[in-house]
Amino acid sequence: MTDPSAASPWLSRQAYERLRTCLAVSPDREDPSDPSTVWSMPIVLNIPRQDPPPRHELLADAARAVVACCLSPDPAFADALTSWYGARIRKVARRARNVQWKRVQDVPGVTVGNARACVPSAVVDTHPEVRKLQISGTDLPPSPAPPAARPEVLIDAAFGMTVGKAAAQAGHASMLLAAQLSYEEVAAWAQDGYRLQVREVGRAEIAEARALPGAVCVRDAGFTEVAPGSVTAIALH
């Protein structure tokens, strides 16, 4: 499945209600002694050596791909998403280029621009084409932030997160935003291909955004790069 503006212009009520279950506080179902209980959504970022995409555009692609995957009407995605929502909602970003990027299009998921959100799975069952991709070692420099517009995701630039970590935060913000909105609001968003923008901003703007009505905060679990409980992103509608 490719750009959601063409592939899924309507919103499945079942997919919407399923996504809303991620807002519930559920017992931690992960068992360190059982790798099959540790689930993750792979996000593959296309970062060619020549002419890589601007950082803010890549982050927006990742955010749109994640929410489109979560709200896909494809029934083949349903069981995997349900299992993922019931565990810790991890996302792991990996880099691809050239033939790697072409091959990963065969992995179930949704592509928007230069990002593909793959259907979640137990980490031990990660698709072979995804598993071979590099997780760390590639970053993109900051790019000029676009003018403020809604919907948008604000990333706290003070953390200095890598592009992969920031992509995961942007994706988490977009799915939480959709889960907080009404069905009618999300249906209208789906008609527009889940368009949004991502801006990396300073701590002062993050603090201001947190105080706005309807602001959706992402608190990181602290597995990588930032301390547990850090507010890494804010989604605004």
Automatic annotation (TrEMBL):
Name of the top EC class for this enzyme: hydrolase
InterPro entries according to UniProt: Pep_tRNA_hydro_II_dom_sf (IPR023476), PTH2 (IPR002833)
Catalytic reactions of this protein: an N-acyl-L-alpha-aminoacyl-tRNA + H2O = an N-acyl-L-amino acid + a tRNA + H(+)
Protein name: peptidyl-tRNA hydrolase
UniProt entry tagged with the keyword Aminoacyl-tRNA synthetase: no
Alphabetical UniProt keywords: Hydrolase
Taxonomy, superkingdom: Bacteria
Record EC number: 3.1.1.29
GO molecular function, one term: peptidyl-tRNA hydrolase activity
Organism: Corynebacterium canis
Alphabetized Pfam families for the sequence: PTH2
UniProt keyword Isomerase present: no
